[in-house]
Write a structure and sequence with these properties.
heterotrimer, A: five-stranded mixed sheet, four-stranded parallel sheet, 15% strand, C: Rossmann fold, Ubiquitin-like (UB roll), five-stranded mixed sheet, 19 strands, 38% helix, globular, binds iron/sulfur cluster, binds FE2/S2 (inorganic) cluster
């Protein structure tokens, strides 16, 4: 332990603590900009680049960046001397001098860390006029890059390279011209980007934002000839409230349903329903493969990999084209929902496919890309028309003057609104495999599962493993969240060294609760933990907690699909994967 | 900012499939021989990502510049994202994605040359050739670059054409230097 | 070098090389062979003599005759006259600009009199491509002594006692750096030689590497022995092909002699050296950036601590030293710490190499004892300001340094005094400026360099240097305002305080030091829109000479803005407020009455008290 003085307060901290953390411990807040950390997930970005966090250390020649300077025993630190305040303000004005004044029309306005600092520092003038860096705007199916607004905090670069190991983005050029961009400053669509959206969730400014589809939805809602239905992903209900000032981890399922109804959706459904359906299909596939494997069938490949995360699907299509037969062929819940909605449900209500608009609300930016994939279209008409993120929904609700906090709790519509506790935990890392285990166990052993909670599968550690006993058969289960962790497991599979029978992968740290479309966590991993806890609570509150017991699912099979894995089920609920070579496609721009 | 992407010269207009050691398929617009040459260079540095800069030096020595496709194959061999290779290429001024002219002109704008009038000399070259620093004339004959001190400060201002050093260059002498090369080219064809 | 009666040393440094010294060498060599003198006369290509201004240089030993500006055609005369007949070729001898007399040998040249060559001891005397010559001059003796007779700690203590400080710029005590690195435990450590030398207009390190590569290799091995490293890396600019070639040759020769490699001098100490190439980034001279660059990444610096001595190349303890620092080591070991410490000032020991350039008579490379004054360097060694112009300032320390003026001429040169005077030792660039140089433009030049070389990692430098440069540009274009001066001061101070690495922290120095010393020039640019040196082209004015003008009115007719007024046959005047400087009038005037001037006749405003404002 060492002792130091910060703004006349004595504080004792562990050796190796940064001044920033020591100050927080002493109750002194120091502003930061480039620094970003999700401690419990081992994610950190400390380029020491913005210099907003500088403090005065007695005896030191220049100011010290508190986010990367280790506290030393006996240090005397001033965090708001005139020298410090002037330096911070000058640096902030410099940053602003190379930034467009777009706040009124910026997607990030209100959530922007740069804007917040300008407010906090009381910036009223901008004396440093000069050239501003100008770049081309880049729009992909999921993400818009408007890097005129980039402040070179390098958070996205760290996310994409270190956490996700995708390497779509890197710092390019030098000095004033430097920016974070894909190779050859080409478009994101031509890069190996997976659309996981983690760069967007870390970006402090409006340089990286989601591609907004709210306007298309408004147009559809105001078209009387269209029936517009909406599905909401499990993780949305655990985070949406944050956008309305509610504490992280507040479950707002009922209010969310009411809000959607007020917005004019004809039916408000739940992706949880199709999550249960996913378990039926994926669980069946798992059992078949495991059985075949145990019986010594040489054609069976294990482990089986979950396939409900589009970021993850893109990742293995790009990086593991040799392993395309390993993942489950089950579509993601979003796409299963769309497929059922535009067949079974459309028939039920007697609406033509072309007149039914399916909207999804997702914690995810990858889903925007996923619903546009060609294999999920019938005659050019997509199973899911538009996907918006949790943040877009919140903005939509605000736009419509709906007083979210005062809304009564509503209930999902039938029949695609009924779900089990197994489905709602899909939003957490480990949730899919836990749900699958609950069903697979009972289907395999024919016995009732006594302990529904598989605590051994939960947690935030990047890679987890557990052995589940299926009546004497030991099933090795692996879980990874964050693509970098997934890569490690996949490399083992490629080398034939994997000990797992089944692996769950979620592209985003924490799973969908930490998705790229969720309210910004601003570097607080506690937010993720609270969201995760909320989903486990939701599960516990459910009367039915196993997918195969969902009455609407049972009915769907009876009325329509037949059995899990049936021919129709295969046609509607399964898919295939395509190799995406990391080809440098050079599109010359004018 | 407009994109700076080099169009491959004709020689590179091939499609070649390469299966990397990681089983990933990459397609590049390079003829097989060139890919083999790049592989050879990468192999000579054990495909060690830490040797990226040395690999790029070698590749640039070989091809004269570093078009996107070359960077892609290098990235592939060293197992690093091509975005990172591009990040490195654009960081160092020595690396270029634009082919240099037949007669690359480098003007020293180090301090010693600057105080003895290098700026005016540079201006004269850009005016005479009608290109900016870092560009190549449309006929590919000349390109202009700036250097910082070639260690011949005694001869300031200094200009290099290829490897040949011209000392004490005055703005008036610029035409003459260019003429020397224009003539020599004219004679040969 | 023993059995020859005479040696002809031909400079093969970059400066002389560029003026065909290779041919001179070949012609001399051929001539010696043709005349059958090969047994008595040896022709050697050496590193830089320092006197590059008058290259190519040929020096004759043993009489120290110093021939300048030797052309290949002169070879025959040198052999016939000097070598055979013993008569010096007068016209090639150095001409003393003051006495206008030919100087017979180098010992009597002002340029060399005050110099003390320690780091450059072998530059210009040996053939750097032949290890035998280095060995004849005691190369690797120090290494042998250290390995066989001394412990690492004893060696470190010796270096500490010598008082040697880093010559790369910051002046950190070298022995102490070695000691810290040696104490950090690790399975692997590295010695790195910083040969990036990015300072524009400086070429000290390159000359050492080109002229005496073995001194650096030897020192690196000594360092390796002291800190417990078996691998050394030299990070050298790719723009130095000659130095690279000579290093490669030197390394392979040393390896074949067993002076590098496994079990050196039969001990269990092994040491290997590899080259790593820079690729054109000044910031890679900064040690953390250099390390990242050696790892194949963008050369962006990172925060210190951790220092390289703790966590350097590949995360291992790494000792980074400058070329010149290393070049001093073998002599210190051989001649002793006390000998070295006897040279220089109290806190700065030994000598320093400077690249003397700019508006000075003797441009070249010099090595002087610390504590010498700027006046001695400029007037005695440098031979004074070129063309008899008036001395204005000397810029030291390159882009990190500052400008010193007349009043600093008697400052003794050492790390502390230069710092106190608002400049820096830096790596050793020394640029002399005369009355024709505009100090605002000089500051702008350096800032332009910084804008190009900033790595972009931190905001104060990435954007701040750009804004500084833009502000200086406004001032030189005559668009400056009073508040721009405040902007320069505040931005400069904040950059020093907040930038991440040395580049950004020192980048404002050229501005701040010129603001300090030449405020009146800034104010002139801003308030009077005037540049006294005439360098700022936007501050030149078309002026009609009263004497020459015939009042023909030709100019009035071409002036697009009707800026010219005057009666027929009367001298005309140009209204500078209206003139757009198109130059049409000057072209038109047949009487050469219009010229570009640094200033124009201004109306003198009188106040009511008849006092000048
Ligand atoms: C921007 C910048 C450029 C530098 N360039 C060089 C250089 O070209 N050569 C050098 O030896 N040191 C350079 N340095 C200093 C090095 O960081 C380092 O201090 C030095 O190599 C240590 O060696 P020394 O202790 O022997 O001086 C530079 C520092 C900065 C901040
Ligand atoms: S990024 Fe932030 S500061 Fe910039 S325009 Fe958008 S809201 Fe404003
Ligand atoms: S805050 Fe000021 S600038 Fe912004 S919208 Fe309101 S009045 Fe306009
Ligand atoms: S979306 Fe994911 S993969 Fe794509 S650039 Fe962002 S972090 Fe990288
Ligand atoms: S795009 Fe956003 S996250 Fe990435 S460096 Fe720029 S500001 Fe930071
Ligand atoms: S983890 Fe969830 S939010 Fe993230 S990409 Fe996958 S599906 Fe989308
Ligand atoms: S001070 Fe300049 S060179 Fe140094 S890290 Fe910052 S931006 Fe890069
Ligand atoms: S320079 Fe042009 S504008 Fe000025 S006085 Fe002459 S003709 Fe008129
Ligand atoms: S053209 Fe020349 S001489 Fe005639 S009025 Fe103008 S300045 Fe005078
Ligand atoms: S927050 Fe510390 S430097 Fe950016
Ligand atoms: S500054 Fe031009 S050669 Fe040194
Ligand atoms: S290069 Fe010949 S004297 Fe310097």
């Amino acid at each position: 332990m060492i002792e130091l003085t910060i703004d006349k307060k004595k504080v004792r901290v562990e050796k190796g603590t940064t001044i920033l953390k020591a100050a927080r411990q002493a109750g002194v807040e120091i502003p930061t900009l480039c620094h970003y950390e999700l401690c419990d997930l081992g994610i950190e970005n400390k380029p020491g680049g913005c210099r907003i966090c500088v403090v005065e250390v007695e005896g030191r020649r220049n100011l010290a960046p508190s986010c990367i300077t280790e506290a030393q025993d006996g240090m005397v630190i001033h965090t708001h001397s005139m020298r410090v305040l002037n330096a911070r303000k000058t640096v902030l004005k410099l940053i602003i001098s190379d930034h467009p004044f777009d706040c009124l029309v910026c997607a990030k306005s209100g959530h922007c860390e740069l804007q917040n600092l300008a407010v906090q520092f009381g910036i009223r003038s901008q004396p440093y006029v000069g050239e501003q860096s100008k770049y081309r705007k880049d729009t992909s199916p999921s993400i818009i890059r408007d890097v005129d607004k980039c402040i070179m905090c390098r958070r996205c670069e760290m996310m994409c390279n270190e956490v996700q190991t995708v390497g779509a983005l890197a710092a390019v050029n030098r000095g004033f011209m430097s920016v974070v961009a894909p190779a050859f400053e080409m478009n994101l669509v031509d890069s190996p980007c997976t659309y996981c959206g983690q760069c967007v969730s870390a970006c402090p400014t409006g340089a990286l934002t989601e591609k907004d589809h709210t306007n298309e939805i408004i147009r559809a809602l105001s078209n009387p000839s269209k029936t517009v239905i909406v599905q909401t992903a499990p993780a949305v209900r655990a985070a949406l409230g944050e956008e309305f000032g509610m504490p992280a981890g507040t479950l707002v399922t009922g209010k969310m349903v009411s809000a959607l109804r007020e917005l004019g959706f004809d039916y408000v459904f739940d992706t949880d329903f199709s999550a249960d359906l996913t378990i039926m299909e994926e669980g069946t596939e798992l059992l078949q493969r495991v059985k075949g494997y145990l019986e010594g069938d040489p054609n069976v490949r294990l482990p089986i990999l979950t396939s409900c995360c589009p970021g993850w699907v893109n990742f293995f299509e790009h990086n593991y084209p040799d392993l395309l037969d390993v993942p489950s062929t089950a579509k993601s819940p979003q796409q299963m929902f769309g497929a059922i909605a535009k067949t079974y449900f459309a028939d039920k209500i007697g609406v033509k496919r072309s007149d039914l608009i399916v909207v999804s609300v997702m914690p995810c930016l990858g889903k925007k890309y996923e619903c546009q994939r060609d294999e999920f279209k019938v005659g050019g008409n997509p199973d899911v028309d538009y996907s918006i993120s949790t943040r877009e929904l919140a903005a939509f609700i605000k736009q419509a003057n709906i007083d979210f906090l005062e809304l009564p709790d509503g209930d999902f519509d039938d029949p695609l609104g009924e779900s089990t506790g197994a489905a709602v935990i899909f939003g957490n890392t480990g949730g899919v495999i836990e749900a699958a285990c609950r069903t697979a166990y009972e289907l395999y052993t024919g016995k009732k599962l006594e302990k529904v909670d598989f605590n051994e599968l939960r947690g935030l550690e990047g890679i987890r493993s557990a052995t589940v006993n299926f009546n004497g058969v030991e099933l090795n289960i692996g879980i990874a969240h964050g693509l970098g962790n997934a890569r490690k497991l996949l490399d083992e599979v490629r080398e034939g060294k994997s000990k797992f029978h089944a692996i769950e992968v979620m592209a985003c740290p924490g799973g969908c609760i930490g998705g790229g479309g969720q309210p910004f966590n601003h570097g607080d991993s506690g937010v993720l933990e609270k969201r995760a806890a909320a989903l486990y609570t939701a599960d516990q509150r459910k009367a039915i907690r196993k997918s195969h017991e969902n009455p609407s699912i049972i009915k769907l099979y009876e009325e329509f699909l037949g059995k899990p894995g049936s021919e129709l089920a295969h046609k509607l609920l399964h898919t295939e994967y395509f190799p995406k070579s990391n080809e440098v496609t050079i599109h010359l721009q004018g | 900012m407009s994109q700076k992407i080099t169009i491959s010269p004709e020689a590179f207009e091939y499609m070649e499939k390469v299966i990397g050691t990681d089983g990933v398929e990459v397609r590049v617009n390079l003829p097989k021989e060139i890919i083999e040459q790049i592989n050879e260079i990468c192999d000579s540095f054990d495909n060690d990502p830490g040797e990226l800069i040395n690999v790029l030096h070698e590749a640039q020595n070989r091809f004269g510049y570093l078009p996107a496709e070359v960077q892609d194959v290098v990235a592939h061999n060293l197992h690093i994202p091509v975005a990172q290779v591009y990040g490195v290429v654009t960081f160092y001024s020595y690396f270029s994605m634009i082919p240099k002219g037949e007669h690359p002109i480098s003007i020293c704008v180090g301090t010693a040359c600057y105080v003895r009038g290098a700026e005016r000399v540079l201006e004269e070259f850009t005016k005479e050739l009608g290109i900016k620093v870092g560009e190549t004339t449309p006929d590919g004959r000349f390109s202009i670059n700036c250097l910082r001190c070639v260690g011949a400060c005694g001869l300031a201002p200094v200009v290099l054409v290829g490897d040949k050093v011209y000392g004490r260059v005055s703005p008036d002498g610029v035409k003459e230097i260019i003429a020397e090369y224009k003539k020599s080219d004219g004679g040969s064809c | 070098m023993s059995h020859y009666k005479m040696h002809l040393l031909v400079c093969a440094g970059t400066g002389c090389h560029s003026s065909e010294s290779d041919l001179v060498y070949e012609m001399l060599h051929d001539e010696v062979e043709r005349k059958g003198l090969s047994d008595d006369v040896q022709v050697i290509r050496t590193g830089c003599f320092g006197f590059c201004e008058k290259g190519p240089i040929v020096k004759v030993l043993p009489d120290n005759t110093f021939y300048t500006e030797v052309k290949p055609d002169d070879a025959r005369e040198i052999i016939d006259e000097h070598v055979i007949k013993g008569r010096k070729v007068e016209r090639l001898l150095y001409l003393d600009p003051e006495t206008d007399e030919h100087v017979l040998d180098s010992k009597h040249m002002g340029f060399y009199k005050k110099q003390l060559r320690v780091a450059l001891r072998n530059c210009g005397t040996i053939d750097p491509e032949n290890i035998d010559e280095s060995i004849a001059r005691d190369a690797y003796m120090a290494l042998g002594k250290v390995i066989t007779e001394m412990t690492p700690q004893e060696t470190i203590d010796l270096i500490k006692r010598s008082g040697l400080r880093g010559r790369g710029g910051a002046g950190f005590p070298t022995g102490l750096k070695w000691e810290i690195t040696s104490k950090n435990q690790s399975d692997q450590k590295y010695v790195v030689c910083n040969a990036d030398e990015g300072d524009p207009g400086a070429f000290m390190d390159r000359s050492i590497l080109e002229g005496d590569p073995h001194s650096v290799l030897e020192a690196m091995a000594i360092c390796g022995y002291c800190i417990g490293a078996t691998e050394g890396l030299i990070y050298i600019r790719a723009e130095y092909p000659l130095a690279i070639r000579r290093l490669r040759i030197a390394i392979s020769q040393a390896q074949s002699y067993g002076l590098l490699g496994e079990n050196i001098f039969g001990s269990d100490f092994s040491f290997n050296i590899k080259l790593r190439y820079g690729a054109g980034a000044f910031v890679c001279g900064e040690e953390t950036a250099l390390i990242h660059s050696m790892e194949g990444r963008r050369g962006e610096p990172s925060n210190k601590p951790p220092f390289p001595a703790e966590k350097g190349y590949l995360g291992k303890p790494t000792c980074v030293n400058n070329v010149e620092t290393f070049a001093n080591i073998p002599v210190i070991v051989q001649k002793g710490a006390e000998w070295f410490a006897s040279i220089g000032t109290e806190k700065s020991k030994g000598t320093k190499v400077f690249a003397l350039a700019g508006k000075i008579n003797n441009v070249g490379l010099i090595e002087v004892p610390m504590g010498i004054t700027l006046r001695e360097i400029i007037y005695e060694i440098g031979g004074g300001v070129k063309g008899g112009k008036k001395f204005k300032a000397v810029q030291t320390g390159g882009p990190s340094g500052g400008c010193l003026t007349e009043k600093h001429l008697d400052t003794p040169i050492d790390y502390e005094s230069l710092m106190a005077a608002g400049s820096m030792m830096g790596s050793g660039g020394m640029i002399v400026l005369d009355e024709d140089d505009c100090m605002v433009s000089v500051a702008k030049f350096y800032l332009g360099f910084i804008v190009e070389e900033s790595c972009g990692r931190c905001a104060p430098c990435r954007i701040g240097s750009k804004r500084l440069h833009e502000t200086l540009n406004r001032i030189t274009e005559g668009k400056g305002e009073q508040e721009d001066i405040e902007i320069l001061k505040n931005l400069g101070t904040v950059m020093k305080d907040t930038a991440l690495c040395g580049l950004g922290q020192t980048a404002p120095n050229p501005v701040l030091s010129t603001l300090d010393n030449f405020m009146e020039e800034y104010l002139e640019h801003v308030n009077e829109k005037k540049c006294r040196s005439g360098q700022c082209r936007d501050l030149l004015y078309y002026v009609i000479s009263e004497e020459e003008c015939t009042g023909c009115m030709a100019c009035t007719r071409v002036c697009p803005t009707h800026a010219i007024s005057g009666e027929r046959r009367q001298p005309h005047v140009i209204n500078q407020e209206v003139c757009i400087k198109c130059g049409a009038c000057m072209e038109k005037c047949q009487f050469d009455a219009i010229s570009l001037q640094k200033d124009y006749p201004r109306e003198v405003q009188l106040t009511t008290n008849n006092e000048l404002v």
